[in-house]
Amino acid sequence: MAFNFAVSSKNTNGAPLPANIADPEKYLILDGRTYGGYSCPDMLVSMEKSYHGKDWNQAQDALHQNGETMLTIRQFADFLNLLKSGKAYDGRGKAVDGKRLTSILNEIVKVRDPWRSEWLDAQFGEGTISYHIIENQMLKKIEEPLADYLSSDKQISMADWLKNANQHGLPRANAKAGNLYYFAPVKGRVARFYANSVGAYLGCGWDPSYSNSDLGVRAARKKI
To answer: What is the pTM of this model?
Structure first.
């Protein structure tokens, strides 16, 4: 399957054009991509989590009220790849220092205390995955069939997952072994990523009604 970058607005020097939002310096620009039949537009992704202490549905509602969305697993994997690249731009179109990108990455994935966690926009059905987009200022649910994914729990390689994730961001059935704890999709459950002193985890079997003061969400919005 070919993974292609979507066309992104750039200055003549190759830097992205600034976004038309308040506080653009608080966001990173995530270039849009197309994965087979799944397309992600250019996005602005918050450098910090917010909406702490809300369950999955409450976080969805709070984001929508502000014209924001939750990152899908695919967008989240792309965001981690962006941080790992050491080259990214903020919403002003200004290059972000590599040390800052490493700090954001470590806050998400590094095996250490304290416990950190964030919701991802994926809810699972019987062989399906659903996520949301904002269309005409309304939150619209998209449901698609799951395919070519790892359907059992396994410790996998994070590098392999980020390099070879399927169109929905899930590890493939042939995912290499490693230190990332992966919990496969469960019907009626949702996804989140978390890390602590024991390990880092991509969990696709979480109760959407669960909440915790340390559990937040990384707000994103389509770049305009």
So the answer is: 0.92
